[in-house]
Amino acid sequence: MCTFDKDKGPRRLMKKGLTLILVGHINFILGAIVHGNVLRHISKPSQHITTEYTVANIISVTSGLLSIAAGIIAIVVSRNLHVLKLQIGLLIASFLNALLSAACCTGLLLAISVTVAHNGEGLMMGCNDTMVPTNARSPVSARCPFDTTRIYDTTLALWVTCALLAAVEVGLSVWCFIVGLALRGLTPCGNSYIKEQLEEEAECSPRSRRLIGQRLNPDA
Predict the structure, then answer these.
(1) Where does the sequence pass through the membrane (predicted)?
(2) Considering the entire predicted model, what is its pTM?
(3) Any idea where the domains of the chain sit in the sequence?
(4) CA nearest 111: which of 44, 46, 42, 47?
(5) Which residues have C-beta within 8 Å of that of residue 147, sequence separation ≥ 6?
(6) Buried b (16+ CB within 10 A) or exposed e, 113-136
């Protein structure tokens, strides 16, 4: 897990960063679709904001944005392995993104469980018939200000997809965090020796440039 090849490692890190950016964008878009089509109708001040709305909209969208930022940092680090600030930035961004994505995945699974257990009653809180609980699986008799067609199936399908994407974000973020540990030579990746190799390469580069300059300009 802590091995980082100096030759192939940067390319792998760049691929992981690109994947994080792609997954983050998809997760962000799906969260926005759920909010725009369904959850905005149950987030009015006069009504109760359900657990589904809080989890799916706020945490999922924030996780997608942070995944995009972590992916960008990973790509920049892959091109600048020697820069200390970028290494620390990769550690912090990947660690925070792993935690937030794990919380997002857990929250989405909780929202799915609550919705299935109550037959989607929380999804129908924007309807006018508030005296009688409305079943989202058969909202034929409900008078709602939005289209109730397949609201139950569509919302669950989007939430399941977002939960899977959040799990992918967790795996990618943990991998980037381990790479950051290896680059800094921190425990438990202190024996990878990649930090020493990068420091030796950084020290040898100025010497090589001076030797090349002396060969090109022997009179200097």
Answers:
(1) 18-38, 58-78, 90-116, 156-183
(2) 0.76
(3) 8-124+149-206
(4) 42
(5) none
(6) ebbeeebbbbbbbbbeeeeeebbb
> Per this entry, what is the length of the chain?
220
Per-residue pLDDT of 5-24, as tens digits, reads 677 778 888 999 999 999 99
Who's near 161: CB < 8 A, 6+ residues apart? 30
For 83: left if phi > 0, alpha if psi spans -120 to 50, otherwise beta; the answer is beta
CB 108 within 8 A of CB 60: yes
Average pLDDT, the chain: 75
**Which of 63-72, 115-124, 161-170 is predicted with the least confidence, judged by mean pLDDT?**
115-124
Q: Please report which confidence band the pLDDT of residue 194 belongs to, taking 50, 70 and 90 as the band edges.
A: low
Tokens of 45: 């001040």
Q: How confident is the model at residue 212 (pLDDT cuts 50, 70, 90)?
A: very low
